[in-house]
Write the structure tokens for this entry.
Amino acid sequence: MGTRTRCLIAAALLALPFPAGAQNLANQLFGAHAMPSLAQPQAYGSYARGCADGLVALPESGPTWQAMRLSRNRNWGHPEMIAYLQDLSRAAVQIGWRGLYIGDISQPRGGPMTSGHASHQMGLDADIWMLPPGRLDLTRTERENLSSISVRTEDQRNINSNWTAQHHALLRAAASDPRVDRIFVAAAVKIEMCRTATAADTPWLQRIRPVVGHNYHFHVRMRCPVGSRHCETQTPTVAELSNGGNGCDDTLMWWVTDFLNPPPRTERTEPAPPRQRHPREFTLADLPGQCSEVVRSQ
């Protein structure tokens, strides 16, 4: 969808009244914006229920990075996120890569997305490809068609031959930055990194968190920036999740044992928890109050 089309859709949607309880889906309203708001950078709400003012674009190409899948228009982030990604791309050069291929960050005004992610709603999440860049002069078409690589076996239990010492070094650099809250990876990746862990690694290694999927990319989540008082950093903290350790414990091994092969149910089972609504089902009423102004503003 081109910029002109997005702007026309946004104008039509913004002309609609937004009474309390309006049923206009928030992802359609936010997804229609081709550009960010002109307000000062602020993150509102949480990573999976929020929005943002003043996001800035990661330039499509730089000396040590390229933004991928440009047709999605999701290369927008809080200025601290954009600075972090550029810094990390330079660190990637130091470990032997040409730079980074960077996937989705956020929509121009954050908010729920029209497809894909539940999070990435405040410009504080970013996906970084596991594929070491072969070139940093890819065309727009090439960026649409090139795929990343998986670093995990199909059975989800181990890393595969695509995993390298450079992947380990890159994740260490990514997690060592104090701006980072946590990084999501496939469980097999965390298990592999734990094999050589020392006590000195604890502060950064506890930020590496196992999550289903995340074998083609790793997902960086930033802390709430200073001054964004309406931003909610995720809880529990990584220190609480790992009981002050590095996270290389039985809770990690659960991902390759019970998670993959759940134990049989007993005759006495708990009732199924109520279904959680996906952010794509949210209306503006489900988001922080500031998001109504973010989506309305010019």
